[in-house]
Q: What sequence folds into this?
């Protein structure tokens, strides 16, 4: 089984913001030696590949306005082994509950 993580996994856009600019850190680890490639699922070319490794790390800048999926795939078969989502959410005040202290008189 492969352990695969992306950090951060979430970007919150405030009012007036349209895109996230974030530096993502990708890490994976496998109990057996593998040749893997990291893909952003809406792109055909891999972001990074590793050959005959049991672990890998990669940092890159991401600009995104919508949630984006990433996959680790086997190099030879192109078979997806694991995936992670970088989620873009909008901080919309109308969906947030008003916070009020229970002891407040106003």
A:
């Amino acid at each position: 089984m492969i352990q695969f993580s992306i950090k951060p996994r979430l970007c919150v856009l405030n009012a007036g913001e349209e895109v996230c600019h974030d530096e993502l850190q990708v890490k994976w680890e496998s109990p057996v030696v593998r040749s893997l490639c990291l893909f952003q699922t809406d792109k055909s070319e891999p972001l990074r590949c590793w050959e005959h490794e049991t672990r890998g790390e990669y940092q890159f800048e991401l600009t995104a306005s919508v949630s984006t999926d990433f996959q680790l795939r086997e190099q030879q078969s192109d078979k997806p082994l694991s995936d992670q989502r970088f989620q873009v959410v909008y901080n919309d005040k109308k969906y947030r509950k008003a916070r009020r202290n229970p002891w407040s008189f106003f």
Summary: The CA atoms of residues 41 and 70 lie 6 Å apart. The chain has no helices and six strands. The chain has a mean pLDDT of 89.
